[in-house]
Input
Amino acid sequence: MKICKCGCGNLVKTKTAIFLQGHNGRGRKRPEYEKKKISETMKRIMTDEMRKNRAKIWKGRKHTEKSKRKMSLAGKERERIKKEQGYTVSQEARKKISLSQKGKTLSKEHKRKIGKANKGKIISDEQRKKISKSKKEYFKSNVNPFKGKSHYKE
Output
């Protein structure tokens, strides 16, 4: 099986197709006249009430456990196939991703959730040594922000 060429990562179901149905136009820039035509058509078709209701359809709904499992398995399968086909993110793309994430601060709630997810994880001795080595290397040139502080109130 092949992965859809639009970049979505989903599997193409037929042998001859290179896109999933409807994915061949993804990412394509539409000319202004085409955008205008679509806009006018949608204005004729959809009433104000329909527009308001459209946004409310999924609001407050939650996926069932069964559908969550199916989505999880599908994502894992996509990742497995990408690895199998030798798909990797280029260094340039990694750099762009890194720069886009720089300076973002996480909320206390988000940090709490990350901590909760990591709690109880078992780290192998090999991994512990790698972490220790990287931390030692980092603190040769950087000051530990906890230096001189204590967990206990004095």
Summary: The radius of gyration is 24 Å. The CA atoms of residues 136 and 142 lie 10 Å apart. The mean pLDDT is 88.
